[in-house]
Amino acid sequence: LRTLDGGNNWQPVNTGTFYDINDLYFVSDQVGWAVGDNGIILKTNNAGNDWQNVSVGTTESLNRIHFSDSLNGWIVGTQGMVLRTTDAGASWKQLYSGTTNALYGVHFANNSTGWVVGSGGAILKYTPSPPNCLPTIPLHQQIDIPIDAEITWSEASGCEDGYRLSIGTSPGGTDLLNNQDVGNVFSYAPSQPLPANATIYVTLKPYNSIAEASGCEEFWFKTGLNTLCTTVTTTNDSGPNSLRAAINCANTNPGPDTIRFDIPGAGPHIIALASDLPNITDDGTIIDGDSQPTGKIIIDGGNMTDYIVLLYSELNANTKIKGLTIRNAPGRGIALHKCTGFSIENCNFYGCGRLDPQPQSSLLQLWGCENGIVKGCRFGVTENKALHPTRTAFGITASGRNIQIGGARSANEGNVFGNNHFAVGLWSDAMVPLLAENIRIYGNNIGTDATTTQVWPNYHAFDMGNDMTDVQIGNGMADFANIVRHCEDFIQSGYGTPTVYQVEYRHNLFACNNKSLDYCPCTPARSVDIALAQTDKITGMSMSGDTIEVYQSGDATCPNTVCQGSVWLGRTVA
Known about the structure:
Layout: E1 21-26, E2 32-36, E3 41-44, E4 52-53, E5 62-67, E6 73-77, E7 82-85, E8 93-95, E9 103-110, E10 113-118, E11 122-126, E12 151-152, E13 162-168, E14 177-183, E15 187-188, E16 199-207, E17 218-222, E18 231-232, H1 243-252, E19 257-261, E20 269-272, E21 285-288, E22 297-300, E23 311-314, E24 320-322, E25 324-327, E26 334-337, E27 343-345, E28 348-350, E29 362-375, E30 378-379, E31 392-406, E32 416-417, E33 420-426, E34 436-442, E35 445-446, E36 458-464, E37 468-473, E38 483-485, E39 487-493, E40 501-505, E41 509-511, E42 515-517, E43 529-533, E44 538-541, E45 547-554, E46 563-573
């Protein structure tokens, strides 16, 4: 019933329920509450003209309701039921009362002091204490958690108001979320994906009107790789799920990222570029062409009209590119500048430098790089084992230190070079500044394949620039020997007057080349005068300390050229 004239007249109001209403409480002239049997809670926002049902999931009879202010209210009922709201009734939370007696009265002097009375002489006083910390969260100590995972937790005992959450990438860190009040909820979905392949640290602090929980343990879990936007499913040059979009995604997501391919169809899958791909700017980026289930991934620059590189990475650590075919770039194919810990594996390069005005383009350029490897790649030879008609100036150009080109022949780590003016060029770079230092060139097939049956001529095998420090071409073991065939010469070496020239050639197999050495900056020039050559012994004269390698020559398998050193016989020191 409702009156508008001080109680002289009363009119019935439809509440929408047939259950008994046990109590009413108006917070203001317009906002009021009613509670009753079977868990009924009703609210009006227009002075009782209309009532809406508020469900809290209980069927207990609710007997009394009281608000200490516009936000904080309490309801009591049968079976010791006590409900509390701290958000003006938007949500209600059941509190532990410690009794199963029916409760009939409630009054609060303020938000932290109140009394409840009930059957059996029950008198309860509400004196809250700080809540307890959570013992754990479901993600604690888990690994390979998706980077878009939601962080969840159970309700902390004594927590009536909410939780403050911190998230970081180091112990005690708050770089991802700094003590944010997430409310009285039991989950949090980060607004941005978590860093991939990282350890995430979480601190959750329950709080109530008295205080915040103290001494709460920090939890941790490890995320997996980023697969949200780094899986390429289309050959489109741009747009969703393209390689261009995946690189941009990896660049904006801190930490390591692996770009994988899952393009439908048998392939080959040709990504025809109209412009160069985004520069790789984030450490730990892997582009894994071998992840494609069927068919090869081919990145084609035939539509590009500017003299630029297809794929570029600068000042990054741990860039890894594998299983791609890079072809028809107007300039360089792939260029790494001042990168560390890089790896280029199982890639195929050809047809690049088609707009090179010099020509000085490289299929692969390593400029001022450190601590990396190039293995199992082909330079100048197509996927069909044919020579591309465009001869590139360099297969690989490299400057820097601690770089290995090739590897063990038994593990197929050597690279193949064909139809390059120079297969491998090592240059010092005063601008970086870095010399070519501690470079290892092992197990490569230059001008042919591992069986030596293919004829894939390069003009020069090796171009050794000025200052070279601790460069090894071959390491003295057959498994790391470079095979060089069908070239104008084995080595074109040295320009001007180098300050340092430490290049060692050991146990390589070179044959069918027009000449072995074009120029060597040795002072004085080294020569060996052979005095006696027999089937079991060779003797001669050289300078003291020189390392002498002996090969068997012949021309049976090298038409029109000299078979300079197809069989390695041995080594000695003069």
